Amino acid sequence: DVKVTQSSRYLVKRTGEKVFLECVQDMDHENMFWYRQDPGLGLRLIYFSYDVKMKEKGDIPEGYSVSREKKERFSLILESASTNQTSMYLCASSLPSGTYNEQFFGPGTRLTVL
Amino acid sequence: QKEVEQNSGPLSVPEGAIASLNCTYSDRGSQSFFWYRQYSGKSPELIMSIYSNGDKEDGRFTAQLNKASQYVSLLIRDSQPSDSATYLCAVTPSGGYQKVTFGTGTKLQVIP
Hints:
The complex is a heterodimer of chains A (114) and B (112). Chain A has strands at 4-6, 10-13, 19-25, 31-38, 42-51, 54-57, 64-70, 73-78, 87-94, 104-105, 109-113. Chain A is mainly β. In chain A, a hairpin with a 2-residue loop joins β5 (42-51) and β6 (54-57). The N and C termini of chain A lie far apart (37 Å). The mean pLDDT of chain A is 93. With 112 residues, chain B is mainly beta. Helices cover 0% and strands 53% of the residues of chain B. Chain B has no helices and eleven strands. Chain B has strands spanning 4-5, 11-14, 19-25, 32-38, 45-50, 54-58, 61-66, 71-76, 85-92, 101-102, 106-111. Chain B is globular and about 45 Å long. The mean pLDDT of chain B is 93.
C-alpha cells in the first residue's frame, strides 16, 4: 500500500526559528513535492524534486529551501520562520510518468508560527 | 483566469441523490486529470484518474472528461453522508509532466 509519512502532525514554532519538516515515502517514487494549503487559496506548490539532489522551485518558494539526499526522503526548511508561514504543509510523491503521474499525499503538518 | 476552476460551493444534496461536481481548465494541452477527496483537517486522497475523453466508472464514482470543452466532472451516485468533503480537481498541464495544478475545491454536503 502506498505510504507517505510526515514527521509531525502539529508543530508550534516561534518567529525566527529554523524549522525542518520531513517527508518519507516507501513507494520508490522519483518525484516528491511540498505544498502549503491555506483557506481560499488551495494547494500551492513550494518546491518539488524529480531525483536525488535535484530540485525545482514551485509557485511560492520564497522563504523556503529543500533537501533531498536520499530518494525516499524530502525535507522542507524554513530558514527563519515568520507568522505568514503558518499553514498546513503537505508532502506528496509520484512516479515520473508524463501521463500517469498520480500524486499521493502524506497526512500533513499543521505549522503554527507565533 | 485561473488554470483550474471549481465552484467553491457548498453543494448540498440529499442522501441517496447524485452529486455532480464540475471543473474547467484553461490549458488545452492538458493530458491527465484527477479528482481528490479531502475531509476537513485531513490530506487529499486520490479517488479518480482519467486520461481520455469519455466516462470512467469506479463503484459509485464516475469521472467524465471532455477535452474539447476543457471540462471534467465527477458524479457520485447514491450519495452518503460520509461523502461530505471537499473535492479537488487536478490537472497535469502541457509541458509540466511532473507537476499537477489543483483547483481550490468544491465543498460537498450530503444531507441525511
